[in-house]
Every structure is written in structure tokens, then in C-alpha cells.
Predict the structure.
Amino acid sequence: MINRRQFLRAAIAAAAAPLIVPGRVLGLNGAVAPSNRIILGGIGIGNRARHILPNFLSFSEIQWTAVADARAERLASAKELIDAHYGTKGCRAYDDFRELLAQPDIDAVYIATGNRWHAMGSMFAARAGKDVYCEKPISLTMGEGRKLVETCRRLGTIYQAGTQRRSTASYRFARDMVRQGKIGRVHTVESQVWCGNTVPHQKPEPVPEGWNYDMWLGPVPWRPYVPGRVQGHGWMCFWDTGEGMHTDMGTHYTDQMQWVLGTDDTGPVEFEASDIVWPDPVKFMSETAISGTFRCRYANGIKGVIYQRGTFKERYIRYIGDEGWIQVDDDTDVVTAEPRSILSLKAAGGVSWSNAGGHIGNFLSCIRSRRQPDCNPEVGHRAQSIVEAMTISARLGRKLKWNPVTEKFNDEDANRMMWREPRAPWCV
Amino acid sequence: MNRRQFLKTVSTVLAAPTILPGSVLGLNGAVAPSNRIVFANIGIGGRARHVMPSFLAQTDLVFTAVSDCRGDRLKSAKEMIDKHYGNTDCRMYPDFRELLAQKDIDAVFIATGDRWHTTASIYAARAGKDIYSEKPISMCISEGRALVEACRRYGTIYQAGTQRRSTASYRFAVEMVRQGRIGRVHTVEMQVWTGPTVAHDKPTPVPEGWGDYDTWLGPVQWFPFVPKRMAGANWNYFWDTGEGPIIGMGCHYTDQMQWALGRDHTGPVEFEGQCTWPDTEKYMSETPVTAEVRCRYADGIVGVMYSRNTFKDRYIRYIGDEGWIQVDDETNEVTAEPKTILNLRGSAGISWTNAGDHVRNLLDSIRSRRPTICHPEAAHRAQTICQAMNIGLRLGRKLRWDPVKERFDNEEANRMRHREPRAPWFI
């Protein structure tokens, strides 16, 4: 606390000091003036956020000023990480993300919570007037996704879904080749994600010190704290909190398929799941599929297939046309094609999907221009709807017809599965 | 028939001597049809079949319709009712909303699974029907409160199926307590049986002809059809669809305790307990196996709920500073200390297995428009105690409860007062 005298003395000293300010404050020498930086906050700073954070921090036009997490140790280490980058102690830490959203200086948020929080967190942010970069999958249900689209439209939110492969050189090349007709007319888009995990039965335990478990759960039904269900990526294997591999990784591929086929504002008309291998409930408590084949068909006859099989390294997407095919292997970022001559058109390297820089750059430029980002809410929602419809078809064990205009199935059971009521007080 | 045939028939009828059976006019102790309360049933499984005779024995009501989402049950229910009345008039509705839309129906008897009790009751109240609903009356505290408000708003006469309030043995015990025969009560002991467990099982397609599974699920989260989960009363042991014996049976006892202590409009202020859970490696069921949960009223009276031993060992015992009195549910026997209390007991009366007097109480209330003996507020308050006990066990902590605001001292517990229904079943 300084008193009035001390204040005046300081003010006089400051006024008397020579007016030399560092060039970076004025935005000289390629630096961005602080007044022109986009102020960012992060919500949910786990593994994914830590992976992508360097991509964000490499942009000099942003200033990361706040983090929120329901886990105390993650919150503390996230603050340290950001403070270390800026060499200050200025990063604010909030155990409740609503407090972060209430800060008027924050322009945009990066959301990397667990899947259960993605759409809800995004909508709260949009209502608080923030722009949003949100990790995929962008929603847990189609109903939630549609509400997200409406919310962003109503509030003029710039929203980027974290399906960053749209900003990746290899995938862009494949898209261009397909669109230019180098493989003829496309009839099938094949993709492969790895086998889902299983989690053996386990007993509940007390919630670890420092966890706000109730906040962690957020909109999903209350369940006791069972480590295997919560820790690591365990939550991916339970319907309440995740939907398994074909949704989690699959949404990248359906996003690519929609983009390449130019169907970003619509979707397939038919879904079917087959050969699903479910975890043996006698041994495992996890609920999502281990392996299976998920198919969809567009009105013009083009087919999409997601195989959930093999290992993590074997994931790929392949566009098959009547004159050839082109494939991107995700693990190696290598593009293969038939006829091979297509590959001679590929320019050198570019960054792979593991660097989200291009995607973030697209988001930041849209924040300034107020134009729609590559993966705007409608795009994200439509790509996500495909994998969610596949999930519903698998769970109900039947083929479903879908109307992409009314966004309804031909089946009432399935229609009801397009929405789950959030747990109070988390309503949309 | 054409106009001519019609006129011929009419003239025949007019020409016939006007002799009506006395029963139609309400003579000879019979109730005239125009004065009978028209009843319908929603959900007709094991429990409904057990209670139906208590309803049908009343001469001033008539059952005219049944509803069930399972086709086989619906048909056999119609057969049972038609057989009783010796006609084929009973109407069948696979969708209970159609039943509620029938204007001639005055009241409904709801005996669905627990998950449906409140939602169906509120829909019935909105449709202007009076209600007898099986216990437990709700799946969560907020649902119970919504039920109370709906019945108040629509002037619904509602009887909760905690029929031990109309049972001689229990009435006797409550009277003895209220007359101070055991001195000042300090403890009410309640014992229900050990919670069953259900082994893990795989989902299967819904069996052919089983019925409408989506309607069966109703307001709870969708889950696949798992035979062992659906068998018998096993749904009792999963949080989505039931809450175990502490609620299934316990709500009868908390209802008695509240009644004996005169707390129908309020409740305890503290809940604390321990329990054992099913071994998750062996069982998929979720509700406690054994439990001991205490609740404490503001004036210090303690209620203890035990979940232990066998089904036959269930009892309630009021303990005062000058003695105790106990009702054994299985035998309907009353014991007491001092034994002299028992001399005051009149004839045995009917046991809890006969819900006749409880149904009678509802019918009288339907005519008088006065509250039933288990009116919504009383039932909701009794049910709240069991639900608070379960929330305390699930969270593994002691909870304080404000019975005026109906709030816990803990936000996580407060959120568990409510569960979101699955669309389109909003209340």
C-alpha cells in the first residue's frame, strides 16, 4: 500500500525520467505492441494443452495471461509454464473457469478440458464475449453441437475447432489433388483409427487432494471417483465422458472427408456400424467399442468408412476414386498415391499435424478480421455429427437414415440419443 | 345398421317393460355406476398384480383401462380386469399419455418401475386425474418437490403407496408412541435386508415381443438391454433405475418414523453413515450391500437405518426412555417393553400385505377432496430422508440438511438432489 505522498513522489520521478521506452512496446522491430496483442486464457491445462501450448506461445501477437483448471497441481504448473515463457509472474490462475471468463481483459480462450466440457465451456465463453479455440471432439452429442453453432452465430463468436489437420500441408495436398480430379470421381473415403482401450473393473477411491471432482465431472451424471475411469485417458472409454476412438480420432477424418467433398454444411444420409467388438462386461468396466467398422453414405452415393482396428501407428485416410487413390499416413505424415505421378505435384514439406501453428494462425487472423475460421462451428459440428451418428448406430445395433437438413434420424430411439441432459447447474 | 333398423330397435326398447336391476340404481348396498370412481392402471407388473385385488374389492370404483409398454403384460392385465367384471370393456393403451387423455377416467393407479413414478404422477395430475402411486414416490429430492407442487397446483388427490399407514399393527405402534407409553422417544431403529448384488452380464438385443424398451427406460439415461439388469426386480440395484433396499423398503419406515414423530412437513437435519459396496470386479450392481445410516432431528431424536441380515428380519422399533415398541414386518407382530402396552391392542386388523384400507382412504379423499393419509408432502419428506442417506453414502461424508430450504451444506450433495430426465420426459 502506498500513501498519497509516496504516490506523488513516484509519479514525479517517473515524469522526470527520460522518455526512453523499449522498441517492442511500440511495436517496432517486428514485435507486436502490447496494446495490439490478443489476450488469451486457457481452460483445462492437461496433456493436450501442454503439447499445443508452445504452438500458441510462438505467436508474438498473443499474450497468455490466465489459466483455469479443476486440478490444483495442474493449475499451479500451468501458471509456472506460462510465467517461465514470459519471464514474469503475471499469469493468473483460476480454479473456476467462470471467474476467468469474467475477466474483461481476456479476448479469447483456448479450451482443452476433457471432452465432456468442450461444448459447455465453449458456450459459456461465447456468452462472456470471448473468441474460442476448442479442442476436438467439439461436443458429446449432436444436440449440444447444434446449440454451440447457434450460440456462436448469435453472439458473433470467432470459433475454431481443434481439428488442425485442415491447416496441415500433407492433408491440404491430398484435398487439392482430390478436388482437382487427379483420382477421378471419388467413390469411397476410407480411414482407420486404432483399437479402443479397455479398463478392468476397479473400486471407487476417495477423490485425490486438490481435485475439484464435482467441477471435473461438470455436465455429466455424478459417479464415484474410480481412478481407471478418470485418470489418464480412461474417461475416453465411458459413454458419459467420451465415445471411444472412432469419435475421438475419427472426427479428424470425417472433418477431412467433409472438407474434401465440399459438404461442410451438410452430411451423409445413412449410417451403419458392423463387426463391433464391445468390451467383455464381466472383465471390463469400460463401455466404448474395442474395434469395429463404421460406415456412412452421402446422397450422391459416396461412401465413408472408418475402421477401428490395428495399432495407433496405423491410422490413415485414403480417398479412392475411379482413376486412382491418395492416402495420408498420419503417423509418418507421408502421402502415397496411385497413379504415383500425383506425388510429383507435392511441394516440399510443410509442418505436420503435430504442429498446430497454422491452425492457430488461422484463428488469430480471424479474430482480427472477424471472418469465419477454417473449422468454424458449423464445420466442426457437421464433422462431429457423423461420428456421433456412427456411435448411435453402433449402440442401437441398427442401420439409421439421417436427414442432414432437419438433422433428424428416421428412428425415435436414435433421435433421443442426439441429446443428453446436462447435470445441474450446467445447463445450456 | 340403417335408419329403419335403428328405429325398429328403438321401438323395441321403448316397448320393453322398464325393469332395471337394483344394482344400477345403487340399491341393495351396491353403488350406482354413475357414482363409481373410474380408475385406470399405469404399469402392471408384479406389484400391481399384488395390489389389484385390494382395489377391485372396493365396490365404488371400476377399472376401465390399463397401460403398459410391454405387450404381454398389457394383454394379461386386460384379461384379469375383464374376468373380474365379467365383460370385455377394459381398454388397453401402450402409451400412458393416451390413457391420460381419456375424459371418463377419474383416477390412476401407478405401479411402473421406480424411474417412472414421479413423471407419470405429474403427467396424471396435469391431466386432471387423482392418483395412487406406488412407492418410492420419486428418484430424487427435486422430483419429489416438483410432485408436491404439481399436486397442490392442480388440486390433485394423491395417495403414496406406503400402505403401512393404514395397517393396524403400525397404527397401534404409532398411537402408543404418541400417547407417551414408552416415554420420550430418543431413537427409531429401522432394519431392511442386505442389498442384493447382480453379476456382470453382456448386453443383448431387446428380446422379440418384449415391448417398447425406450418407453420402459423413460426419463433415465439410455443404456443397452442387459438381461440380468432387466430380470425380476434387479433394476432396483442400479442408480439410474433404483436405489436399493434403503429406499425400496426404507421409505416405508422413514414414513412411519415421520408420522409417529409428527414431522410430515419437515425432516432431520443431519445424515451420516457407512456402507459396503458391491465388489466391482464381480458385480455390475451399484447400490449398497450393507449399511448403517443415522439421521438426527433438530430436537436430538435419532433415526438409524440398518441394511443387513435377511429379508425376513426387517423391523421398526421406537425406543423411548421408558420402554420400546417394535413391529416385525414379516410376521406383523408387535412386541413391546413394558409388555403391558400390548394389552391395549384391539383386534389384529389386516396386515400390510392388504392395501385395502389404504385404497379406501384414497377413495374417501377423492370424494371429500381432503388430503389422503400419505399426501404428497408427507411422502416426499419421508422419501427425502432415504435419498439424503444414499447421497451421504455415495459421497462418503456427513451431511447437514436444512429441512426448510431443502438444501444440504454441501454443493456437491445439493447437485445430487436432482437428475436430469432424458428427452422428451420433462416435468
User: Anything to note?
Assistant: Chain A has a mean pLDDT of 93. The radius of gyration of chain A is 23 Å. Chain A touches chain B through 31 residues (CB under 8 Å).
